[in-house]
Prior knowledge:
heterodimer; A: about 450 residues; alpha+beta; Uridine Diphospho-n-acetylenolpyruvylglucosamine Reductase, domain 3; 3 domains; eight-stranded antiparallel β-sheet; five-stranded antiparallel β-sheet; B: about 425 residues; alpha/beta; Fumarate Reductase Iron-sulfur Protein, Chain B, domain 2; Rossmann fold; four-stranded parallel β-sheet; 23 helices; about 55% helix; binds flavin-adenine dinucleotide; binds iron/sulfur cluster; FAD binding (chain A); oxidoreductase activity (chain A)
Amino acid sequence: MTKDAIIKDFEAIVGSDNVMTSETDRHTYSYDAAVLDSVMPALVVRPTNSEELGKTVKLCNDNGLPLTVRGAGTNLSGGTIPHPGGVVVLTNGLNRILEINEQDMYAVVEPGVVTAKFAAEVASKGLFYPPDPGSQTVSTLGGNVAENAGGLRGLKYGVTKDYVMGVDFWDVDGNLIKSGSRTVKCVTGYNLAGLMVASEGTLGVFDKLILKLVPPVLAAKSMMAVFPSMKAASETVAAIIANKIVPATLEIMDNFTIRTVENFRKAGLPTDAAAMLLIEVDGHPAQVEDEAAKVEEICKQNSASEIKIANDAAERDAVWQARRDALPALANLKPTCVLEDATVPRSQIPAMIAALDEISNKYNLTIGTFGHAGDGNLHPTILTDKRDTKEWQRVEEAIEMIFDRALALGGTLSGEHGIGLAKSKFIESETSPGTLAYSRRMKSVLDPKGILNPHKIIG
Amino acid sequence: MADIHQLATMLKELDDQLVGCMRCGMCQAVCPLFAQTGKESDVTRGKLALLDGLASEMLKDPEGVNEKLNRCLLCGTCQANCPSGVKILDIFIKARAIMTGYFGLSPVKKAIFRGMLVNPKLFNHLLSFGSKFQGLFTKKADDMLGSSCARFQAPVIGDRHFKGLASKPLHKIVPELDTPAGKSGKKVAIFVGCVIDKIYPNVGEATLKVLEHHGVGVFMPAGQACCGIPTISSGDTSSFDKLVEENLALFEKGEFDYLITSCATCTSTIKELWPSMYQGSSANRMKLRDLAARTMDISEFLVDVLGVEPAKVGGNKTVTYHDPCHLKNSLGVTAQPRTIIKASSGCEYKEMAEAGTCCGSGGSFNIAHYDLSKKIGDRKAENIVNSGASVVATSCPACMMQITDMLSQKKAGVNVKHVMELYAEGLR
Ligand SMILES: Cc1cc2nc3c(=O)[nH]c(=O)nc-3n(C[C@H](O)[C@H](O)[C@H](O)COP(=O)(O)OP(=O)(O)OC[C@H]3O[C@@H](n4cnc5c(N)ncnc54)[C@H](O)[C@@H]3O)c2cc1C
Ligand code: SF4
Ligand code: SF4
């Protein structure tokens, strides 16, 4: 079929307003939040209901057109960078919350619903949806499921996968596949919903999501503890967990990040501290009091020089503002900011932090480190200028070494940002050849023409 | 027309600023235009990518990029919320100037800016002529709001409900002023602004009444020109420079502590764009920097300098407040106008939802993209109505016009006032 004829066919499905073909429109869907080169798609299509979405997928497959689904395009691994000459399918026209079931505590949503809007809507009904990626004000639930996004509350509440009860998705031939159910337990057949989590648009296109909701948090207490070394701070993390306390949030910041945040917005942070932990315990009020006291004691035992407990909402907000400012403050320093995702078993955090120190020295790079220490997920952030080709070369080498070290410490390539294009070439170093071959076989059966987000994850 | 390579070279000048965008996409959460269209080219990240694409000669369609670049309210919400601190408005305005240099100014804009706006006398004369005849073509829409609509089908007016030209502009009511400082010991210069002068002279009068009440001396020279925002946002740097020079020459003649305006748009233009976008002599640039440092919104002056505080509790009318983008996003002034409303006799303050989101006016955006402007404005009007207030106050006459249009079309029964009007009404 000619290109014009294909465009007409897409227009017949979604209407001409929802098919974008101009150079300018296509260019604005050629990138995402990853620091990678952009690739122009041939077409951008925006379905606005389930039927249109299914027909769009089928039309792509019938014509052998590579298809990349795009939510908000905030992923940090190139998952939405299109295939040259392919089609970008937008989900922001599919943004309805179809049901919030208060009694059975689940919700059914379309994939383009914005995460924070959903969480707010759920909260207004007295329920709680915990996954809170830093991008939640724009990221979509479909994108969250496809990346298995995490967030600040990962330690105690888990990540997106822990809230996915079911996924309805279009297979590549345009059949609607239903997986999972509205029940808490469901072991009927293969766990296809589980397969869809973290699939990055390579196995099917989500049409609806069934998401688990939980009761709201009754009470919470936040604190900030200052340490003389990153080692002491990271050992405290291990000690808190070893004492069988699971805070809702347990975040770490190194000295460079603390200073940068304080410069960004004066909040009275201890700029001479080598490291800081930001901790929140939550649950029943009595339990919160008890755990907060224990955490304070553990911090002291691990040579914390200062512990500040937030006494009211304003003080609590100040603690978390400091954490929220970490990325913006660092990003303000240099033109290019590469937010990495080094994840290791919690006990290996001190070793990973030492490795990052060594890497920043070896490659003479500025690296600020903060992250979800409690779940072993660090965000070393490399500050550079991509236009400086020599330095950029060193950045690429440093990134590779960060992965190497994380893997050597029993960690993983990605804790939450996905593999996409950025890390697909490294996947072999984490999985066995057999695992990769099995994954490729699965992909080729489910998507014989290889049109669903080609080259992502498994290369 | 210069060749596209030359355009790319010119846009390369923006490279250092463009590279600051880390393409995180967080601007999608705040852009009022993106909220309506959901198109990446309508949000900052997309526009910056387009400029970058043109600068690196990846794109070959400057017309297309220009069209997208102009679909923007220049509300600055994205800039105020960009985690990477990208100077977005600066980039957009410079890019528009470069694009206008490349394509040339449209004949209509050329006629308006260069033939009329830069010549305040002629501009005033033409509009006073217009004010006499406007009744022939328009009819009353809403008495309380003082809005009108087209009598016949009219191409430019469409279904707008607008506030017509005042029968007597401020420069006719109070041609000029130079009074000494009274009990406050302070003297201010007043920059009136076109919309207050020609459409809302009552806001100008209220401002003067308030300043007199507080014993503030006023320098208000005759012959003030437009602040230049319509010219610079269309990329017409030469008209902009002319307007800035005309104004500078007038205000240089007076002695005052602060330059005050009751128009959020003029305040932000004088404070931010005069020093950054004026291309003339370095001596003038120095003077503009000094003037900018002394420029303030009227509520900011009343609260931060004079120390006006809420004095009473309760009131017989409920008032809500809409934050003009130019005050909130560009200058960070949000508390002071609310303080003034709470200090205004008879006013009970009630915050509306999304008080800080754009009303959709965006200056000439309203003319070029009325459908989008109206959609954004409708949401604002809904929030105003839902607040239950009987009056919506704001600090920018351009927002007043847009909100009046939206509320009048809805027959919402909510009045629109400038903060100074409310405050002045309560002064004995
Ligand atoms: C400032 C910032 C902070 C961030 N913080 C976090 C964080 O704390 N934790 C974290 O985990 N991530 C974080 N991220 C990364 C990113 O926001 C997440 O990966 C998020 O889940 C992506 O959502 P999205 O809607 O933008 O998806 P997109 O980026 O549009 O897409 C992501 C992937 O999902 C696929 N996809 C999208 N919709 C569908 C669908 N309907 N069906 C099938 N596949 C689909 C796409 O093809 C792509 O492979 C952050 C990013 C930024 C820029
Ligand atoms: S928020 Fe700022 S850095 Fe992020 S995409 Fe928008 S303009 Fe770029
Ligand atoms: S200035 Fe306003 S309308 Fe323009 S891109 Fe930024 S937020 Fe959107």
